[in-house]
Amino acid sequence: MANILLTGASRGIGLAARNALTLDSHLVIGQSTSGGDGLIAADFASPGAADALWEQALATSGGRIDVVINNAGVFEAADIADPDAFSGAWSRSLAINLQAAADLCRLAVLHFQQHGGGRIINVASRAGHRGDSPKHWHYAAAKGGMLAMTKTIARGYAAQNILAFAVTPGFTMTGMAEDYLASRGGDKLLADIPLGRVASAEEVGEAIRWLVSEAPASLTGATIDINGASYVR
Ligand SMILES: NC(=O)c1ccc[n+]([C@@H]2O[C@H](COP(=O)([O-])OP(=O)(O)OC[C@H]3O[C@@H](n4cnc5c(N)ncnc54)[C@H](OP(=O)(O)O)[C@@H]3O)[C@@H](O)[C@H]2O)c1
Hints:
The chain contains 7 helices and 9 strands, in the order E-H-E-E-H-E-H-E-H-H-E-E-H-E-H-E.
């Protein structure tokens, strides 16, 4: 069974993935912003936090990590009319949604090269393909960057048995239903989803579990869409 570093493991998609992977008998080393509940604390808004997390995860795992899942993320609105809020949101979004994942991918690739390979699963978003709302340019850009990074890693290191996958959830219910829908624009969003509902965190968690435990090596470089056919490529 695999030793897995999973970011954003406290709630939502990360908690669902953690539960599914634990049921599969993997050792899941989880992270959240403030820790607790057996998780390592790391705030990716702080430079160097991802590197420090990696060292703690390595120590916890006895020196061997087989899988890294970059799931932690923030979805924060920024008004384009406010230059300070706009640039602040870009910095914060890129740091948490992209740079931390890149730092962990870098450390994972170097580690996997010494240990016969490994898997990376990056949780991006439908927004990385389709774009997002006018207040979330930065989020779509970070997630699009994550997709390009995943493909680059898959192509660059497959020969060393280092495999990289992305998942791109559409709207995924991760909190109280009413709060969640309100934060994403209300009932109107359902009209855009042929399946007629948003995804559950458990559905995304199951896709992540499958990529860790079962996906064939030839799938490396692939992006798994989970969006009720709201964006079909
Ligand atoms: N839900 C959706 O509709 C949706 C759609 C597409 C893609 N996604 C992506 O799926 C992933 C999980 O989303 P979710 O909706 O499950 O998120 P969520 O419920 O809001 O949970 C976010 C997770 O990220 C952690 N986190 C937040 N800020 C952080 C920071 N500054 N440093 C380190 N960790 C931080 C949180 O830790 P704390 O609990 O300590 O705050 C939590 O574990 C994200 O990458 C998100 O972009 C979500």
